[in-house]
Amino acid sequence: MFEQFRCFSNLTAEHFDQLRAISEPVSVQKGTIVFAPGDESRGFYAVSSGAVRLYRVSPGGREITLAIADGGNTLAEASIFSGKYHCYAQTLKDSTLWRINKDGFLEILRKDARFACAWIRFLSLEVIDLRQRMEELSIKTPKARIISYILLLSEIQNHDSVTLPAHRKSIATLLGMTHETFYRTARELEIEGMVRFDGQRIEIMSRTLLEQCAD
User: What is the CATH number of the domain that holds 179?
Assistant: First the structure.
């Protein structure tokens, strides 16, 4: 089962056995708060199916989306080094998660250098991805951000017809724009013949045009 998760892609069958021994399945309905700021950290989560949004609430009451994890992705990895969670995690769909026990995971890291190196490599790539996202939010136009996100989904899902992991409003906040801006820009992309939106599905009509406008 753990073979499906990107963070564990470089592990061995023995490592998968170790992970199974310290993990438990959690089935949750849409809209469930999996954890909240201040809750005791019990471990991190791997999303087998469904989708989970990580967010914080600003002093003014505005929800700020930090990330959206769908099937094959993990969330709250840094919580294994913290006593408490520092944001909210809420399911966007009925979801099946695996909670990976913090103490058990730390024990594997201490005892297995190969496992620890694979984990460090994954976290390093996550930092690189985060820096790239911050750069895109500060430099790129809303249009270029949406295009880059569509191309990223296409790469991850290995198809020219991709599925958004969450509602467009959540995707908009993830990309650092209002949902009105997202809807308006998405409509422009349709008019220009680059994509076609159908609910949560996006059909790439011209990859060449998208790639030209991504920068």
Answer: 1.10.10.10
